[in-house]
Write a structure and sequence with these properties.
Blueprint: H1 4-11, E1 17-19, H2 21-29, E2 35-40, H3 53-63, E3 67-72, H4 94-108, E4 117-121, H5 123-126, H6 131-138, H7 143-146, H8 150-157, H9 168-180, E5 184-188, H10 192-204, E6 211-215, H11 241-249, H12 256-263, H13 268-280, H14 285-300, H15 303-318, E7 328-329, E8 341-342, H16 343-349, H17 356-364, E9 368-370, E10 373-374, E11 381-382, H18 384-387, E12 391-394, E13 398-402
Helix pairs in contact: 1-2, 9-10, 11-14, 11-15, 12-14, 14-15, 16-17
Length: 403
Amino acid sequence: MLSPEEQLHILESGVDSIVPRAALLDKLKKGEPLNIKLGVDPTAPDIHIGHAVPLRKLRAFQDLGHRVTLIIGDGTALIGDPSGRNSTRPQLSREQIAQNAQTYVDQAFKILDKDKTTLVYNSEWILGLGMEELLKLLSNFTVARILERDDFTKRYKGGLPISLHEFMYPVMQAYDSVVIKADVELGGSDQLFNLLAGRELMEKMGMEPQVCLTLPLLEGTDGVQKMSKSYGNYIGLTDAPSDMFGKVMSIPDSIMIKYYRLASTVPVSEIDALEAGLADGSVHPNKAKRALARNIVEAYYDAEAATAAEADFDLKFKEHGFPEDAPTYEADLTPNDEGKVYFAKLLADAKAAPSTSEARRLIDSGAVKLNGEALPAKSYNLTPEQLKGAKIQVGKKRFLRLV
């Protein structure tokens, strides 16, 4: 096992805060495996690499010899985490939560070492609480303390409704830490209040309080908004290798090191050296980004898939080739009275363009290639002979083979 100071250097790479940092170092100095907690509410059926950031940090703890407890919040999900919300979350059914939980667990173990992970569901202790036990728990927190949360404060001052059951969420999450005797709890930067509530409750119950480690939100491929399916800037854990590689290559250079620290399996010492090389110009950004894309694909698939994904990327964007696995479209090439096929509509029908009018605009801008050659403006109608077996490229990323 590395020294406590060496472990701390690895663990704090990319983090937002460690509260208190000195306490984590003291815990590491005990020389015993720590119990590291992450609680996740299965409110959605799948996750992207932004969701996977705390899982990556859990894996770093595992690799250093510590124990991990992954809590599936099937009990707290019935309340709904109010963090960052300006309205009450819709309450999910037990069936929805169970379905989402299984998918989440399957994806989480793409990252975590299953043999070194204790998987628990907090419904086991939360839903079994009697009224007397629940009242004792709630008595540890005041309304004023709960209203210190930024989101609750904003909603209260803005006259927005706050349901009484939402006040229970941080208490229940704190109780999770008591039950499993957490040494460290991980969460996003928006989770600090909940994590500190766990620390406070453990102290009040005579336990050594947990350390709170928060991680920043990961920006999506646009480099601006947080990664989210709703923004269309996400990289899914189940994306095809070529899609995953291409999406990583599209991120701005400015957030590349952040991706290295939060989403890759590259050792921290190598990331430190890489960051210095990018700063002094001895490392080219494109070379570094390719290595990052290969690493991320390999982390969720394997080295062979990463190599194939890079080759596919080069074929599409570097060598301007046509991918062998391009989707096919069975086109109706019946000519009109003039012996032509309305190509703009064909593109829309094949979903290569969102509409016929947009297809015409793309053709006029030179963004549509037929068998490797850009079509001239106004090439809306083509002959069946031109289109038989044609290889079509629309923009940089859409490919289609007519059959």
